[in-house]
Amino acid sequence: MIAVVAAIALSTAAGVWAERRWGDGARVLAVRLLDLLLYVGLPFITFFVIARLKLDAGVGVGLLLAYAELATVGAVAYLLATRVLRAPRPVVGAVVVGALLGNTGYFGIPLNAALLGHDAIAPAIAWDTTVSGPMFYAVAFAVGAAFGTRAGGSARERVKAFVTRNPPLLALVAGLLVPDALVPEVLVTAARGGAFAMLPIAFFVLGVTLGSEAEAGKLAIPPPVSAPLVTIVGLRLVLAPALFAGLALLAGAAGARPPTAYYVQAAAPCGVNAIVVAHVYGLDLRLIAGAILWSTAIVALAALAYVGLGGLL
């Protein structure tokens, strides 16, 4: 856990430093890295991980609860952003995407291992692959296409932008259709390792974004607290895990108890892949970056405190 937190802190700090040191060069590099993730890294990882995914009935109920929880969180995020905050469309999209996407892969899997032991890794991966993956490829990209400033003006243009700018979704469909015998194990192993290798790249881009906005006088480090930011962090870290716990309690009373790892995944901080959605479709990148930084810091400090207290006890 300490290694994961250190990697996040160092990668983010490196991004801020690079932006201060090289300015436009660092920002161009960040854009190129995002394009590399979107068009190469994510499709490769998605295809080979999905192609070998094996699910059993024991984890199915919890995954259904996860979708029910996230559907509720997304609806609440939309209502708060439009009816209470009365935010512009790029902010509405950022609030919904930030609330929906949890960092259940880069952060959630090692967090489960640190808090619950290695037995929690398998269900944590199941959540990340079958819940967070589709929420990112399908729902978050659809929200970005619907509310972003770079997706076109008409409904037809936005639908086209959703399909043509979404290589991971195409890889997901291909991974579900390809026969297992055609998927080399060495590439599956490389894809799983690549998922963790994306952590420093994503947080480096986050650091460059934070540094750029701070230099332009648009964002302080740490980002200031605002109503949309509090909304995202509150929905992601409070409402989402509370809803899942309530649904799981009902399911447990009916004899279907979800794995403990699912509770941890439900409380994961905002996913760094939200930056990709904001970049591609033109959502409020400053808001997304701030929500990722604050929510990750809160969960990381809470996890370190829990691990430290466990060691003392």
Could you explain the architecture of this structure?
The protein has 313 residues and is an all-alpha fold. Helices cover 78% and strands 0% of the residues. The chain is built from 13 helices and no strands. Helix 2 packs parallel to helix 8 and helix 10 crosses helix 13. The longest helix is centred in the middle third of the chain and has 31 residues, at 185-215. The mean pLDDT is 83.
Brief description of this entry?
This protein has helices at 2-22, 24-51, 60-84, 89-100, 108-116, 121-147, 155-164, 167-177, 185-215, 227-253, 260-266, 274-281, 285-312. By secondary structure, the protein is mainly α. The two termini are 18 Å apart.
Give short descriptive properties of this protein.
313 residues, mainly alpha, single chain, 0% strand
Largest sheet: none
Number of strands: 0
Radius of gyration: 19 Å
Cα separation of the termini: 18 Å
How would the blueprint of this fold be written?
Layout: H1 2-22, H2 24-51, H3 60-84, H4 89-100, H5 108-116, H6 121-147, H7 155-164, H8 167-177, H9 185-215, H10 227-253, H11 260-266, H12 274-281, H13 285-312
Helix pairs in contact: 1-2, 1-9, 2-8, 2-9, 3-4, 3-10, 4-6, 4-10, 4-13, 5-6, 5-11, 6-7, 6-11, 6-12, 9-13, 10-11, 10-13
